[in-house]
Amino acid sequence: MNFDKIIAVRNNKTIFRDNDKCIKLFGKDYPKDDILNEALNQARIERTDINVPKILSVESFDGKWAIVSEYIKGKTVAQLMQENPDKKDEYLNRIVDIQIDIQSKKSPLLNRQRDKFARKIMACDLDATTRYDLLTRLESMPKHEKICHGDFNPSNVIIDENDKAYIIDWSHVTQGNASADVARTYLLFWLHGDINGAKKYLDLFCQKTGTDKKYVQKWMPIVAASQLVKGNEKEREFLHSWINVVEYE
């Protein structure tokens, strides 16, 4: 394997290109079970007709684990938005359509979204009463079995040279309620400082699917609380501001 060409550097992981292969190399202290679970998630998504780079191998290099997959030559939607700001609305429309398509699929072996949210809420530093209120709200929400990417944002959609979209980074995928996944994407726009993009994104999704915006908004405190576990200090301050909000405009 060739580790000369770095594509991206993220928290405790580095992505390399080696000809037609993409190598995601994790830090030495990255939990092995999380790495294997990510590879398993992506392999299960491969069994659907969602466009996803195929897993080629899971290997260890100098004590570090790596997931090796197909390299997709193209640009992320985030890059395209930055290069073509006049086409941002067009790209927002496209990622909403892609997300709706993902959520139209099922993969029965995926972990359940509700269980993951419950674990993260229990692990965060909120007081017991707030955790109880959030878990009660979570339990009352409609139970669905749709594929939910869990980290769907413009940086995780690659458009190749033939204008074909590929979705990457399936480490957080679950089966569950689509509106919870939408709430997560909406919050990610906010966390990246794109408030206008967040609002347009949510409006588009609700218009295209006939979803009541208030239904998505009811998920936001739950999703914000689940994000607290790994959020940095600045993000945590923002997330806390969402957790105690019951109704949104």
Give a description of the structure.
The termini are far apart. The chain has 249 residues and is of the alpha+beta class. The protein has helices spanning 32-46, 77-83, 88-103, 113-123, 128-140, 178-191, 195-209, 213-227, 233-243; strands spanning 5-10, 13-18, 21-26, 55-61, 64-70, 74-76, 146-148, 157-160, 165-167, 174-176. α3 (88-103) packs across α7 (195-209), α4 (113-123) crosses α8 (213-227) and α5 (128-140) crosses α8 (213-227). The strands form 3 sheets. Strands 1-2-3-5-4 form a 5-stranded antiparallel β-sheet, covered by helices on one side. A 3-stranded antiparallel β-sheet has the order 6-8-9. The protein is globular and about 50 Å long. The longest helix is centred in the middle third of the chain and has 16 residues, at 88-103.
What's the layout of helices and strands?
Elements: E1 5-10, E2 13-18, E3 21-26, H1 32-46, E4 55-61, E5 64-70, E6 74-76, H2 77-83, H3 88-103, H4 113-123, H5 128-140, E7 146-148, E8 157-160, E9 165-167, E10 174-176, H6 178-191, H7 195-209, H8 213-227, H9 233-243
Antiparallel strand pairs: 1-2, 2-3, 3-5, 4-5, 6-8, 7-10, 8-9
What distinguishing features does this structure have?
249 residues; alpha+beta; five-stranded antiparallel beta sheet; three-stranded antiparallel beta sheet; 9 helices; 10 strands; 19% strand
Q: Outline of this structure?
A:
The protein is α+β, with helices and mostly antiparallel strands. The protein has nine helices and ten strands.
Number of E-state strands: 10
Class from helix and strand fractions:
alpha+beta
Morphology call: globular
Report mean pLDDT, rounded to a whole number.
Answer: 94
Radius of gyration: 18 Å
List the strand order in the largest sheet.
1-2-3-5-4
N-to-C SSE series?
A: EEEHEEEHHHHEEEEHHHH
Q: What are the low-pLDDT stretches, counting only 5+ consecutive residues below 50?
A: none
DSSP helical segment count: 9
Q: What's the main sheet like?
A: 5 strands, antiparallel
Helix coverage percent: 40-55%
Q: What percentage of amino acids are in beta strands?
A: 15-25%
How far apart are the first and last residues' alpha carbons, in Å? 52 Å
